[in-house]
Amino acid sequence: MEPILEVEDLRVYYKSIWGDYRSVDGASLKAYRNEVLSIAGESGCGKSTLVEGVLRLVKPPGYIPTGRVVFEGTDILKIPEEDLRRIRWTKLAYVPQGAMNSLNPVVKVEEQAIDAIIDHSSMDEEKARELAFSMFKEVGLRAEVGGMYPHQLSGGMKQRVIIATAIALKPSLVIADEPTTALDVVVQRGILQLFRMLKEKYHMTVIMVSHDMAAHAQIADRIAIMYAGKIAEVGSIHSIFEEPLHPYTKGLISAIPSIGKRYVKGIPGLAPSPLNWPPGCRFHPRCQHATALCAKVDPPMKEIGSERFVACHLYG
Ligand SMILES: Nc1ncnc2c1ncn2[C@@H]1O[C@H](COP(=O)(O)OP(=O)(O)OP(=O)(O)O)[C@@H](O)[C@H]1O
Ligand SMILES: [Mg+2]
């Protein structure tokens, strides 16, 4: 399989008066063509920062000390800003966390989509209007919705507007950060099905970031589990849910609520601070299998079986 995106040892730090917040601190990851790759992990583990690093959208006091991000053969962190601007939207689309709340309240949603299309392509207004209309239909919005203002739309409809706009130019990769958070489960399911449609109909690669393991289970082909600024485990969605290896992954899966499960087991302890990661394996203070080695040596990522990777001293 050919990777469309390769992230190698990416670091994204935020400067502060207390020192650097090492929010993403050595993350490596591959996304393959025409797959849905999920990125999961507790709040604050660095998922959004990782995505911002990949898209080179990190703003001061954030900076990228090291790392490589290769998208379709182009090193995103090295190319001129102008070239990057050309790639964004046309080839690499992004739905930021909370994007549905960033729609302009005084402009009809269709006009906002048309403006974005004109801004990022050579289309004239008539062509952009036609495209916006067809994309709104494609994502399941009724014809009259385009003429409405954001406050007249439900959360799910706003999210569909955002997605229709982001993918209007048929990018090869779309990265969506928490696209279903704050939506009820029925609307969530509709949005997740929409991403699968994009993969199947337009052969897009979708990277979906969420802390919601149940959402990942419904949509992903593969899943990467992030902990403390790094990737802890990667594998097919089936292998990870059927046989999680990393103790952190096991904790995340056992924390998924379900009917009949009256008591949901959480993960003991608190997530560490990016100002001061624990030495050795960053999960060791919360891990019931931790040994003296775990407190000293950061486990490297090891391949366990085909396309299954885990960074834990218990394996390999
Ligand atoms: N501008 C900033 N300045 C300093 N620290 C920041 C900044 N933005 C994020 N951080 C820190 O980086 C860490 C990772 O944040 P990030 O938003 O990437 O987490 P996340 O995994 O996306 O969380 P969530 O699931 O809540 O969206 C957090 O500890 C956060 O406090
Ligand atoms: Mg986030």
Total separate domains: 2
Total strands = 13
The helix/strand class is alpha/beta
CATH architecture of the largest domain: 3-Layer(aba) Sandwich
CATH superfamily of the largest domain: P-loop containing nucleotide triphosphate hydrolases
CATH fold-level topology of the largest domain: Rossmann fold
Instruction: Walk across the major sheet and give the strand order.
Output: 7-8-9-3-10-11-13-12
Distance between the termini: 24 Å
Helix content: 25-40%
Proportion of beta-strand residues: 15-25%
Whole-angstrom Rg: 20 Å
Textual characterization of the structure:
By secondary structure, this protein is an alpha/beta fold. It has 2 domains: 3-91 and 172-271, Rossmann fold (3-Layer(aba) Sandwich); 107-170. 30% of the residues lie in helices and 22% in strands. Strands 7-8-9-3-10-11-13-12 form an 8-stranded mixed β-sheet, sandwiched between helices. Strands 1, 2, 4, 5 and 6 form a 5-stranded antiparallel β-sheet that branches. Strand 12 (302-303) and strand 13 form a beta hairpin. Helix 3 runs parallel beside helix 5 (155-166) and helix 4 (125-138) packs across helix 5. The model has no long low-confidence stretch (mean pLDDT 94).
